Amino acid sequence: MRLLEFSKQFGGEEACKQYFKEFREKQGLKCSKCGCTDFHWIPSHDRWQCKECMKQISLRSGTLLEASKLPYHYWIYAIFLMVNTKKGISALEMQRQLGHKRYEPIWAMMHKIRQSMGNRDDRYQLDKIVEFDDAFVKTSSDYKEDDTYGKRKGRGTLSKTPIAMMASTSKGSEKVQEKKNKKSTKLRFVKMKVIEDQTSESFEKVVATNVNESSTLVTDGFRSYSICINM
Ligand SMILES: [Zn+2]
């Protein structure tokens, strides 16, 4: 959905609040006091009231919006923008888009959304110069302290899981490079993903989803190495 269609569907604050109310009702409400699932809506207070025990639930309680004073349309627009922008959106840009005076509440809102969206890493695409390597992670259910790479002393089964390692780097300044007389690179982000196997199809698949298409991909001839981790 494009932003224009989105704003047509959701419109202003009232429409967003209505959407949020219906969304919660669809998910189902349950009274924390008596367990009843029958409620009636009190529009003047933005609350539901339990038909059995009269306990009230506010529209925001028990959701991400609880304790937030920001309007409903901020939240809905922010979620839309964060899900639909390929490279992500900064809190400063979000603040500008929403036309809000203060930065901190916008930052806090985005932080909560990001947390609820799960692993941010899964949505973040590496860019600039990306170094790619494939590797194995040795996993074992019976790991011992004295185990070393390739020289396993402990008992238990050892299995190899192929992973792709991608590191996004940026070149250091020319001056630093001259001084040290060697390439200076700065590590920006690292991603490790489990892949099905070490075929070029699997590599292409993992690169397509995790690396921005404008990046320069640097490989080291698909050198394999191992890391031992305790599972
Ligand atoms: Zn109740």
Brief rundown of the structure:
The protein has helices at residues 3-10, 13-27, 72-84, 91-98, 104-116, 174-180, 200-210; strands at 39-42, 47-50, 56-58, 129-140, 158-171, 185-194, 216-219, 226-230. The chain is elongated.
Features:
231 residues, alpha/beta, 2 domains, 3-stranded antiparallel sheet, 8 strands, 32% helix, binds zinc ion
What percentage of the residues does DSSP assign to strands (E)? 15-25%
Distance between the termini: 41 Å
Overall shape: it is: elongated
| Poorly predicted parts | 138-155, 172-182, 221-231
Structural class: alpha/beta
Bound molecules: zinc ion
How much helix, percentage-wise, in residues? 25-40%
